[in-house]
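> example.struct
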């Protein structure tokens, strides 16, 4: 993989929410406004249909509609990544084979959940889907959701042996594990934070960026923080980190993406509607987010 391809995914990617109307249909008007807000805010790329996009509650027609609409609005201004993952390897390969990848720069594929595969199974899973995928693949380790950690040894084996897997989104929360991956990875493999609150220390040990939730609401500020980290200007980065830290903690305190959707409504960017089994955050969290946002805006 060329350095030009790899470098597309350094910096800040936003795992964009899928806005819904009250009755549950996709709110494409708000979706367009939110995409424009991200691009204007300076994020390096946008991820559609990740966990934050409530991908598991979208049917195949809705996923195709999101891809086509999102690509049209983005209009090649930033790279686009789409989520294609799950715990059925054959189904993922089928989904890949039935996807039109025109305009799509990469896929984000979560490690198999529920099955709790062995490391050998995880390696063979990614080998199978990477061999069928016509665009680069970003693997996604999020043990809090999958109940299965991709250990450093398995990640490094994938990084060294599967050239179409160009990065890992690491959301284990384990900086020791991340250190082992960063120190042992090949040059053409990125290690991307999956934890907003840990992005600054993650980048201090050599991480390459983040796929962020909080960037939905604060794309300019959070992407500036990440760029400061890439420039080794940690004094400036810390200012933004601490300014956003309480908000970041609060958006996860009663479920995600419930928290960031509440924040987006507070900021007037999208309605606070989710699909079951997700529900809105409780009133106390909503009020806390409103107060924190007001304090942030006052500087």
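> example.seq
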């Amino acid at each position: 993989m060329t350095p030009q391809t790899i470098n597309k995914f350094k910096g800040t990617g936003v795992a964009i929410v899928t806005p819904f109307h009250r009755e549950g249909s996709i709110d494409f008007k708000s979706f367009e406004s939110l995409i424009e807000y991200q691009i204007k805010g300076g994020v390096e790329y946008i991820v559609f249909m990740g966990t934050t996009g409530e991908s598991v509650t979208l049917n195949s027609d809705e996923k195709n509609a999101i891809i086509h609409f999102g690509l049209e609005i983005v209009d090649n201004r930033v790279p686009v990544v789409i989520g294609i993952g799950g715990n059925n390897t054959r189904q993922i390969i089928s989904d890949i084979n039935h996807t039109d990848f025109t305009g799509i720069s990469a896929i984000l594929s979560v490690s198999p959940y529920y099955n709790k595969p062995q490391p050998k199974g995880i390696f063979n899973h990614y080998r199978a889907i990477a061999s069928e995928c016509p665009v680069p693949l970003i693997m996604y380790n999020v043990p809090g959701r999958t109940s299965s950690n991709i250990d450093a040894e398995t990640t490094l084996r994938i990084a060294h042996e599967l050239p179409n897997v160009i990065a890992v989104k690491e959301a284990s929360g384990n900086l020791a594990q991340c250190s082992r991956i960063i120190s042992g990875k090949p040059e053409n493999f990125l290690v991307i934070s999956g934890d907003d609150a840990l992005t600054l220390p993650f980048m201090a040990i050599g991480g390459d960026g983040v796929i962020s939730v909080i960037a939905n609401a604060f794309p300019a500020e959070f992407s500036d923080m990440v760029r400061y980290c890439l420039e080794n200007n940690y004094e400036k980065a810390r200012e933004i980190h601490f300014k956003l830290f309480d908000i970041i903690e609060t958006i996860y305190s009663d479920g995600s993406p419930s928290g960031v959707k509440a924040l987006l409504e507070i900021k007037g960017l999208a309605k606070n509607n989710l699909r079951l089994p997700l529900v809105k955050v409780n009133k106390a969290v909503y009020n806390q987010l409103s107060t924190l946002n007001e304090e942030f805006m006052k500087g």
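> remarks
The chain has a mean pLDDT of 97.
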